[in-house]
Amino acid sequence: MDDTDYALGRNEAEHDRLIEQGELLRPLTRRVFEAAGIGPGMRVLDVGCGAGDVAFLAGEMVGAEGSVLGVDLDGKAVELADARRAAQQVGNVAFRCADAGSSAFGGPFDAVVGRFVLMFMGDATAALRHFANQLRPGGVAVFQEWVASVHGVSATEQPVLAALLELLSETFARSGASLSMGAELYWRMLDAGLEPEPEPLAEIAVSTGADTPGPRRWALLARSLLPKAIEFGLATDTELDIDTLERRLRDEFLGVRGVMPLTYLMVGQWARKPTGVDPRLACAFA
User: Fold this and answer.
1) What's the average model confidence in pLDDT over 105-126?
2) Could you tell me which residues are beta bridge partners of residue 140?
3) Going by C-beta distance under 8 Å and a sequence separation of 6 or more, which residues neighbour residue 208?
4) pTM, whole model, 2 decimals?
5) pLDDT of 3
6) Which helix (H) or strand (E) holds 30?
7) Which residues are 121's β-sheet partners?
8) Within 13 Å of residue 205, how many CA atoms lie on the same side as its CB?
9) Residue 197: inside a domain, yes or no?
10) For residue 271, what pLDDT is reported?
11) How many domains does the chain have?
């Protein structure tokens, strides 16, 4: 499965950022997984697992009788995830370096899950069809993706943050990422032969107060994206002034005494594999 020109990079700083992000977004992802029915005893495939945070969450939810396999193209991220697993003595989660969009992993699984994964795939519908092939009949596909046009930031009240969000969005878009994937999940799951839940869960994580993690969150994301933003001609080191960005975001936020988003709108959508054989999935049983 062809990836987009992945804009975030695959290095130690980005892996550390992913771990911080995982902690911030954990409650939102848990709510989606609970609504989708992830629970004790299930066998789960986590695609695009990165440093392992979604896999560890799923592992907690399926318990000792269940299991989770996390897969990712980034070998260094997989090594980090496995080191974290060993340090935490987690026995029901394993990791593998592989292309989840084109490989099989010894299913069938009860669930396939992912967060911010399909937005980076060249053909998300084909990817979903491939993942569905690895589910048992009645198994569930659960994905959480962005709708980046929705963030709730006023350019009048927080111009630095608003301009940054536009820059981040444009950088992702130039790389080929789909910033509206959250809004596309329902019909893409339908086209993949799945039966999606008609009421997805959509949330924006926000925080407030002087100790909000928001400025650090956005500054770290900007740092990861800066090389691509420069490559695409969207910004320069001088314009972004990355070393002062977190302080400027915090000063601006404290001045308006409001709430700061920690994400763009996140949409969680889940769908069941039909218990009968759908013609679009028939190749899996040939």
Assistant:
1) 93
2) 111, 272
3) 258, 259, 260
4) 0.90
5) 56
6) helix 12-36
7) 3
8) 20
9) yes
10) 98
11) 1
Query: 129-150 as b/e, with b when 16 or more CB fall inside 10 Å?
Result: bbbbbbbeeebbbbbbbbbbeb
pLDDT of 279 over the 60 cut:
no
What is the distance in angstroms between the CA of the first residue and the CA of the last residue of the chain?
Answer: 21
Question: Cβ-count burial of 60 within 10 angstroms (0-12 exposed, 13-18 middle, 19+ buried)?
Answer: middle
Alpha-carbon distance of 152 to 162, in angstroms, equals 9
The domain that holds 118 is classified in CATH as 3.40.50.150
What is the average pLDDT value for the chain, to the nearest integer?
90
Type of residue numbered 109: F
Q: Is residue 134 part of a domain?
A: yes
**Helix or strand or coil: residue 199?**
coil
Q: Provide the residue range defining the domain that includes 181.
A: 12-151+176-206+263-275
Residue closest to 135 by CA, chosen among 194, 94, 95: 194
Q: Are 108 and 139 in contact (CB under 8 A)?
A: yes
Q: Where do runs of H (alpha helix) occur along 134-281?
A: 159-175, 181-191, 214-231, 237-240, 242-256
Beta bridge partners of 267: 145, 202
Tokens of 111: 């669930």
- Asked if 194 and 140 count as a contact pair (C-beta separation under 8 A), the reply is no
How many CA atoms within 13 Å lie on the side-chain side of 262? 19
